[in-house]
Amino acid sequence: MRKLNMMLAAGTLLLSASAMAQQKDDFQNYNWFVTGGVHTEALMHTDGYVTATGKIGAGIWLNQWAGLKVEGVFGNTHLLEESRGQVFGAQLTYMAHLYGGNHYRPFNLNGLVGLGFYHHNFGDILKKYSYMNILSGNVGLQAVYNLTPRWSVYLEPGLLIQPKYYDVNNKDKVVPSFYLSAGVSYTFKDMFSKWQKKEKRDRQKVSASEFNRMNDQINAMRKQISALEEELKDAKVVDANQKVILEPMRQMPSVTIQFDIMGSFLSAAELEKLEDIGTWMQDHPNSITIVPFADSQAKDDTVQRVKTARADAIRKVLTEQYGIDTKRILTAKPEEVGYVNKTGQEALIVFMTE
């Protein structure tokens, strides 16, 4: 019976997400964040430069084109030959997404323009003065990798414009130099969200009607299963050890779950889909079949690990967060259900009978 159910379920893999259409994640506006990192100008090898400083700050993304952050800076500087000084200050930075801001991607690229105020402490290293306050400006690119919907790491190379504070005779001369920063950021809301509150209420109403439609389809399928069982018994065409390959049909409801490239990360939008599925399974005895795809047709262990990780990610959410019995969560290989050469960044969840 279970094998026959899977055969019928396999016939609908092209009807992906008719009840829940795919939409892009939206960037979360007015999202506060905190950040910390390190900064150096040591690659310049001039008479004076910042060897290493720490940076701690906070900011807000107003929208994908405008973000502001303020950072406190503290650390050490190189002066003249082997002397050391200290630097303390603050920096205000404007940020804008150049790549990856319109919807979720693991990698983002930001443009930066900043202005800083710094207090350089020399002690008795330089005879004419023991400290100097300066203003500096900088432009840079920030390469960001999103570890989770809220945590990210970044690497930031850039150009710095500042006075020659380390040169007694030319301290008013402005010179360019290169810098490199790296750090981590945490946003207080998910960086990307699929729905606003009103849209989510509307979606919940639509989902309820769609699930009712699924129930009607499942009831109709029970009759089809009984008829097919009788045909198989009479014809004796199915061997117990034979894998049946079917061309995809368009009858049973299914939902598409999207993942990142060659990964198993679930975005906030996909977790909302699983929330609906988990809630529905709590109220109904039906099982589901997960059919995971990979981004490549290569026949190697990496592709198989990606498929397994995607199925496991879905199973983990449904079992741990919604208490669904793992026996109700089946899996099928794409080639077993008619998708021999299909690739993609998704897994299909097919609704089955009890």
UniProtKB/TrEMBL annotation:
Entry keyword annotation includes Signal: yes
Entry superkingdom: Bacteria
Record's signal peptide: 1-21
InterPro entries per record: OmpA-like_sf
Coiled coil: 211-238
Keyword annotations: Coiled coil, Signal
Full protein name: OmpA family protein
Source species: Bacteroides mediterraneensis
Lineage: Bacteria, Pseudomonadati, Bacteroidota, Bacteroidia, Bacteroidales
